[in-house]
Structures are given as structure tokens and as C-alpha cells.
């Protein structure tokens, strides 16, 4: 029943508060600033009819001090305060590189490596086709070797970053294995 935040992302959150005022009895002043730099305070006025507001354009992984000040011409209401921490930025892998391609294997690497990633999934399967295999790679690593492939085949490789928040972001690349040696 107090000021609190929901729908928190890396750059926004929604504030909810109890209905203290009405359209006729006043308005709210909402002040918010990074806890580490209160001088960068921003303020917004909100009609007394509102009980929620989305704040956006925020910095990722930052704790904000938020104060809701009811400006009533009828009653005095003390300000309500809360602290909200935005999430880490979810950046998808921006590069997937295929190297050291042989008839039966190739090397996959990706960037950037982020602290907010728990693990990577590397999905690969021949094109055209729908047989896909998955490799799980620890979030600290940024490369793996895919083996036991068919020679002279094009594969679709998708690297999916799985974030602590549960979100997933993917990027794909194509890879070709070399022709096999004669006599295979």
C-alpha cells in the first residue's frame, strides 16, 4: 500500500502508489535521482487522478531514490519514498565468428562477453533441414568447437545468450564444412 516499482527493465520502471488525492484535491510531485548522484535530480508533476507512472530513459544497473510528494490543498500527506535498481543492460551477441573449419568440425566464437550472461547455447544444424543440436557453454567462455559434422555441408549456427534475468538474445551465422578426404 506504499509507493513501489514494478516492470523494472534496464532503462525504465513503473511506479505505483495508493490513491491519496483526486483530480480536485491536488497533484503529485515525483522526484527521482541516482542514489550515487542526487544532484542529478529530475522532477515531474502528475495529476492527482493518477496512481501510476512509467519513468524511462534511465541508466542501467543504477539505484534510484524516488520520492512522491502529494501536494494537497486539503490534507497534509508526508512524502513517500522508495529505492529502485534498474537491471543490467541486455546486449545480444553482436558478432558470431566461424573459424578453423574442417570436414568434420569448426570453431565458433562470439563477442562481447558480459557479466550478466549465465550461459550461452550454441544451436547448430545442417541447411536445409531441421535436425538441430545444442551445446551449453558457460557464460565465462566465448568460444566452443562443434564436432562430428558432415563434410561439405552448410550449417546454421545460432548463439543464444541467457541472462540472469531470464531473458534470451540470439544471433546466427552460417558455417560450411570442408570437403572430406577421398576414401572417407
Automatic annotation (TrEMBL):
Compartment(s) of residence: Secreted, Extracellular space
GO cellular component annotations of the record: extracellular region
Annotated organism of origin: Oreocharis arfaki
Protein name from the UniProt record: VWA1 protein
Main location per the UniProt record: secreted
Keywords: Glycoprotein, Repeat, Secreted, Signal
Domain Fibronectin type-III, residue spans: 1-90, 92-180
Signal sequence segment: none
Amino acid at each position: 500500500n506504499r509507493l513501489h516499482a514494478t516492470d523494472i527493465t534496464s532503462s525504465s520502471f513503473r511506479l505505483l502508489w495508493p490513491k491519496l488525492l483526486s483530480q480536485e484535491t491536488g497533484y503529485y510531485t515525483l522526484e527521482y535521482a541516482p542514489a550515487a548522484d542526487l544532484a542529478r535530480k529530475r522532477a515531474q508533476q502528475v495529476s492527482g487522478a493518477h496512481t501510476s507512472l512509467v519513468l524511462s530513459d534511465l541508466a542501467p544497473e543504477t539505484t534510484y531514490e524516488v520520492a512522491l510528494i502529494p501536494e494537497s490543498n486539503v490534507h497534509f500527506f508526508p512524502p513517500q519514498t522508495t529505492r529502485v535498481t534498474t537491471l543490467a543492460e541486455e546486449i545480444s551477441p553482436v558478432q558470431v565468428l566461424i573459424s578453423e573449419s574442417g570436414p568434420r568440425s569448426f570453431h565458433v566464437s562470439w563477442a562481447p562477453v558480459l557479466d550478466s550472461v549465465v550461459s550461452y547455447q550454441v544451436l547448430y544444424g545442417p541447411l536445409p533441414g531441421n535436425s538441430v543440436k545444442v551445446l551449453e557453454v558457460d557464460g565465462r567462455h566465448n568460444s566452443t568447437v562443434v564436432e562430428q559434422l558432415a563434410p561439405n555441408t552448410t550449417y546454421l549456427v545460432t548463439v543464444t545468450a541467457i541472462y540472469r534475468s531470464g531473458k534470451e538474445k540470439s544471433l546466427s551465422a552460417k558455417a560450411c564444412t570442408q570437403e572430406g578426404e577421398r576414401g572417407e
